[in-house]
Specification:
Elements lengths: L1 E4 L13 E6 L3 H13 L2 E7 L2 H10 L4 E5 L1 E2 L2 E2 L1 H10 L3 E4 L3 H20 L6 H10 L5 H12 L4 H32 L11 E7 L4 E7 L11 H4 L5 E8 L2 E3 L12 E7 L3 H14 L13
Parallel strand pairs: 2-3, 2-4, 4-7
Antiparallel strand pairs: 1-7, 5-6, 8-9, 9-12, 10-11, 10-12
Length: about 300
């Protein structure tokens, strides 16, 4: 796989002139093949450089038009060479047979940056991890790739850079878009949205080791008319507040639920799953949900 970087150097000479290419490759056979291919394209070759020090020396002092860099030189990344080329404004391309390893490196770096940016918001770590996974795509790489095109509209390398970035963004979007539900289930950040009949949102109370569930009783729900004592929530869960028509009050066992009521349920983390299942079961089948075989599972 090849990853391009470009600069204004592409705007120099015309296409008919011979260009010199720096080849950085530690595999002799691959280097010979590249050299032969470049010569067929009427290009001269500087190198090949087989180790990092030699490559850095040629990158600093050599006279050439562009460079082809093997990402791994005897298990050493060639990124320092790329940094030198960037400073000199010389376009280069990464070549690697280890795309998965190094792309994962870049991907996790991006994920880590998103994770760090979320720290001031004090989100639960599961939500931060989910945002880090979902955030590895977007328009920023495309916008950055368009900068060389605006400076050198006729540059083939600049246009190729845009094409490559677009393909990578589409591939990452497809990869992450199809795995988001699985990642959400893995991190347990989608459990509060499992219900379709009623809305259940959660806000973790970390210091108490408990969760706060917000339950809305929709029109047509069989929760309507159920007394609080008939709800029979599991041990460790309690309805702490009922909001009805904009007024909140502390419920008692004889409080009868109505449509459009909003309930705040405090539950321990261990009882949360059973609490949600019980609420859904009564929502679907009424106070006799257990007798009717309704478990409340999605």
């Amino acid at each position: 796989m090849t990853h391009w970087n470009t600069s204004d150097a592409d705007t120099k000479a015309g296409a008919a002139s011979t260009r010199c290419v720096l080849v950085v490759e530690d595999e002799t056979l691959v280097a010979m093949m590249l050299e032969e291919m470049l010569q067929e394209l009427n290009c001269s070759v500087l190198g090949p450089a087989g180790d990092l020090m030699e490559a850095m020396g040629l990158a600093e002092k050599g006279e050439f038009d562009l460079a082809l860099l093997d990402v791994s030189l005897r298990r050493t990344p060639s990124f320092p060479v790329a940094e030198i080329l960037q400073k000199r404004g010389i376009p280069f391309a990464f070549m690697t047979g280890y795309a998965k390893r190094y792309l994962n490196q870049f991907g996790w770096t991006m994920a880590f940056s998103i994770l760090v940016s979320m720290l001031p918001f004090r989100l639960p770590w599961r939500e931060q991890a989910f945002l880090s996974w979902a955030g590895l795509r977007g328009a920023v790489p495309i916008v950055l790739a368009l900068i060389p095109v605006t400076r050198a509209p006729d540059s083939p390398s600049a246009r190729l850079l845009v094409d490559v970035v677009l393909v990578l963004v589409v591939l990452l979007t497809l990869l992450q878009g199809t795995t988001l539900p699985w990642v959400a289930r893995l991190l347990r950040v989608s459990r509060g949205a499992e219900a379709t009949e009623i809305e259940v949102d959660s806000a973790p109370l970390d210091e108490l080791g408990a969760d706060l569930l917000q339950v809305r009783v929709p029109v047509g729900s069989r929760l309507h008319g159920v007394y609080l004592r008939e709800l029979r929530l599991p041990k460790g869960a309690v309805v702490s507040l009922v909001v009805r028509a904009g007024d909140g009050f502390t419920p008692v066992p004889d409080t009868r639920l109505k449509e459009r009521d909003q309930l705040l349920v405090v539950t321990t983390a261990a009882a949360r799953s059973r609490t949600e299942q019980r609420i859904r079961a009564v929502d679907r089948a009424g106070r006799l949900a257990r007798w009717r075989g309704e478990s409340g599972r999605s």
